[in-house]
Amino acid sequence: MKNIVRKRSQKTQDIIGKAYGCLTPIKRTNLRQHGHAIYNCYCSVCDGYHKMRRDTIVSGTFKCKYWYHGMSYSLTYRRYKSAHQRCNNPKHSSYKYYGQRGVRFKFKNFPEFYEWMGPCPGSGYQVGRLNDQGHYEVGNCYYMTTDQQNETRRMNHLKGCNSKTR
Ligand SMILES: [Zn+2]
Predict the structure, then answer these.
(1) DSSP 3-state of 59
(2) Which is more confidently placed, 106 or 76?
(3) 148 pLDDT band (50/70/90 cuts)?
(4) Of the candidates 50, 48, 52, 24, which has an alpha carbon nearest to the alpha carbon of residue 38?
(5) Coil, helix or strand at residue 40
(6) φ, ψ for residue 72 (rounded to 5)?
(7) 3-class SS at 158?
(8) Ligand 1 center from residue 111 Cα (angstroms)
(9) Could you tell me the distance, in angstroms and rounded to a whole number, from the CA of residue 79 to the centre of ligand 1?
(10) How remote is the CA of residue 20 from the centroid of ligand 1, in Å?
């Protein structure tokens, strides 16, 4: 990484790596807007990146569009994470029904998931699949109630006892 020559002014004070709300600037770009440098920032809300003006970053007023009603965001994100875990974490209690059975989590990131799913309607909902032979991906996922999920699991379990096919 190139060392930026610092002028003795607040404007060029290093903000890289510091957290401002959900944003952590990781790299200054060559872009400027109205005299303000633009930074590429990591966003802890959507696990993605935003290009943002320095003054906006420092003010801490930026709100990622995936952050809305703190509650439903975090709920939706938890659903995203747990579906991901079911497919990718062998230590997860449900991995045997998913990852081990060849079910893959194909959403690239939280924004893609959110675009397709929208906010989780409530704590009694989980991410289900329309086609239970299919993967977690755009077109095959929806919110279903926990009861529906238990039923699906039970069915999968029965099928698993009868055959080893995927
Ligand atoms: Zn974001």
Answers:
(1) helix
(2) 106
(3) confident
(4) 52
(5) strand
(6) -70, -30
(7) helix
(8) 8
(9) 17
(10) 13
C-alpha 91 to ligand 1 mean position (Å) = 29
Taking the centre of ligand 1 as the mean of its atom positions, its distance from the CA of residue 8, in whole angstroms, is 31
> How many CB atoms neighbour CB 109 within 10 A?
11
At residue 131, the 3 state secondary structure works out as: coil
DSSP H or E run through 160: helix 146-162
Tokens representing residue 143 in the block: 């919110």
Exposed, middle or buried by CB within 10 Å (0-12, 13-18, 19+), for 144?
Answer: middle
Residue type, 133: Q
- As a whole number of angstroms, the distance between CA 125 and CA 60 comes to 33
Q: Under DSSP, is residue 157 helix (H, G, I), strand (E, B) or coil?
A: helix
At which residue do the structure tokens 């675009």 appear?
Answer: 115
Looking at residue 151, its pLDDT comes to: 78
Quote helix, strand, coil % in the chain, to nearest 5.
35, 25, 40
pLDDT value at residue 131: 93
Token pair of 160 as six digits: 């698993």
Q: Measured in angstroms, how far is the CA atom of residue 23 from the centroid of ligand 1?
A: 8
What is the band of 21 on the pLDDT scale with cuts at 50, 70, 90? confident
Residue of 77, 103, 75 lying closest to 89 (CA atoms):
103
